[in-house]
Give the backbone structure.
Amino acid sequence: ILMFVFHLLCLLLGLILVKIGRISSQQAGTWLLVCMFSNNGFMGFPLAQSIYGNDGLFLMAVANVVSNFLIFSLGIKLQTHGQATGHIGGRQLFYNDINIAVIIGLLFYLLSWRPPEIIMTVLKDVSSLTAPLSMIVVGLSMSRSNIRKIFANKKIYLLAFTRLLLIPILTIGILKVSPLGLHGLLPHLLILISALPSLSAVSMIAETYHTDTETPAQAIFITTLFSPVTIPLIMLLAGK
């Protein structure tokens, strides 16, 4: 529930940002997704484990289930809004391969059922390709952009500032006055999630549904580039 509320608040902030920044309809979907979703899988898992141990990794995995469900349902709808990609109905949004895999994986966990070792080996080998394949997609998108053009895009800095600094600072402020406070694993993990760079799946969705691919690649590049500096600052501000 906490993750649903978090994503909803980030969406509202994204809508305000799109309005203030006068972002075009072609780019608005990307801006909303970058505000809503961070890279809590590829970057979040190792960071959560190194900072908070296995308990942090488990909670990050649970948060990732919620994020995956939203990114490949609501996220697709937001990304394709106003684009000439055809009608995408509710059934297509929710009954897709990603969400089905998330549900099956959650059932396996709740039932404490482990597939045979040979199947687990195959699944581990396939899952290990997820991160590099995602980076390849991002790299292909980046290859279409002029690096000088990326750094000259003033609006992309506004998006990066929102993703890396504004959202986590607001998260800290809201948690501080909430019953959760800033003590304990859960609030600090939420702050870490809020401080992570843009999710690489934003670029993959743009490629799949033939929407604007340049803006997602720029956002992922800029936020990932600056995140090694901003994440420690945010965690220091949060008291971790």
User: Anything to note?
Assistant: The chain is about 75% helix and 0% strand.
